[in-house]
Amino acid sequence: MELGFTTSDIYIYEGGGAEVVMQVAYPLQDVTVSVDVVGGTATVGDDFPAVFPLPEFTFPIGLLNDQTFTFAAIDDEEPEGEETVILAMQITSGDAVLILDTMTVHIQPSDLTYPVYDIATVRSVDVVSGETDSLGVSCELRGIVHGWNDYPSGLQFTLIDPTHGINVFSPLSDFGYEQVVPGDSVRIRGTVGQFAGLTQIIADTLIYEGSGFLTEQPVLVQTLDESRESHVVTLKCVEVVNPEQWTNSAPSFEVDVTTGGEVYTMRIDANTDLFLSDAPVGVFGLSGIVDQRDFEAPYFENYRISPRYLSDISEPVNAEFTVTSPWNLLDGPIELENGSTGAGGYYWTFGNGDDSQEMDPEYTYEESGVYSIQLTTYSADGNCADQTSVEIDVLLVSVDELDWKGAVYPNPTYGRVIFESSEEIESLQVLSLSGKVLRSEIPNNSRFMMDTSGLVEGVYVVVIQTPTATKSLKLVRGN
Question: I need a surface site. Which of 6, 93, 128, 224 has the fewest CB within 10 A?
Fold first, then answer.
């Protein structure tokens, strides 16, 4: 049998109450449990009734019925901040596995006088543990709304003032603030808390003061850390690590992105116009609000970025090209096909000190050899770049080769092909366009017939060696 509370935390106001549910699975025997208070900051008799430990609860064999009780909070009419009660479940008879055996009740104040602080005053964290310094502090914070409502049954968004930012959370109510609008000015009263490293103010009051205020402009950063939490930032150039993570699953999904040095989580929420879009291909600029999901101290890892709009992702730039290899100088400039997307600028290097900034450069090598052609593409705003490279094997003919006389037929071929030369053909190689040797023959004859049935449809390069020359020919294999 398995038993446990259905949630680890519940929130209630002074003078209010909430139902606590205990659930069961695999009821293979009778089990009895007790529930008692094991900790917290609230005072029994003053903040909640002295009814614990509760009468024992019995979970009969074969029944999957939940057991419940109501936790009530007393309104003591004294100004005080949030208080907590930690409840624990214990087995008194029978054998069962306790899945979630403790839970915390958060009692929110109803009669507190709130000092007004700048957000930065309550946003510092311990430099060793990452724990928020102002945990449990009740106050009023004023600022501008950013983001959307991330907790539809209550309220959750980012609040930013000129000094810092903080996450606002209310599990109980939206206080009549039904539409979270970026640029609204609000006052939040509540108690400072922390969830998975993210500093929050657990709101018990929201006062709307106006709309149309300027929101924070993104700051260009290279890393996400505690100083960026609850702020709007831009990561200059990132790339999706695994496009299969782009699932468009509601209510949100997460995608890993890399800066080249660090990997961060990008969270896409169904409330944004990014939802149901395609995964970006290439390197792009990424703007959004930073939060955190670090469940183990010290809380200095697992920062996430949540873009707010489709425009928070700049047009991706993707460098891509193909080149015909091996290549013979007598065939003219090398064949380059630029397949890049999202580029506003190009920079080619040809592996020999030469370069070009043209989109489709015409280039001819002067010496034989294997060269690495590298293409760097730049986004239209110049902030991002992508890079790729391809090797080319350049074959330069000698003067004797100009006198080479021969024929290849039929070309295209659908089966056998005949090579004829005015000189003895000493060797013959068939290469793919990437330069891989697929066939190698030593005819030692001026006429040679080859069966191409082992080649798939496509274009190949045939390199013929005679006593006085080397010749590269294009061979087309039909279907």
Answer: 128
Q: Answer whether CATH 2.60.40.2030 is correct for domain 2-108.
A: yes
Q: Which residues of 309-323 are buried (b: 16+ CB within 10 A; e: fewer)?
A: eeebbbbbbbbbbeb
* SS3 per residue for 350-409: CCCCCEECCCCCCCCCCCCEEEEEEEEEECCCCCCEEEEEEEEEEECCCCHHHHCCEEEE
Buried b (16+ CB within 10 A) or exposed e, 443-465: beeeebebebeebeeeebbbbbb
Q: 220-310 belongs to which homologous superfamily?
A: Nucleic acid-binding proteins (2.40.50.140)
CATH T-level fold of 116-210 = OB fold (Dihydrolipoamide Acetyltransferase, E2P) (2.40.50)
Q: What is the pTM of this model?
A: 0.59
Homologous superfamily of 321-395 in CATH?
Immunoglobulins (2.60.40.10)
Domain positions in the chain? 2-108, 116-210, 220-310, 321-395, 400-477
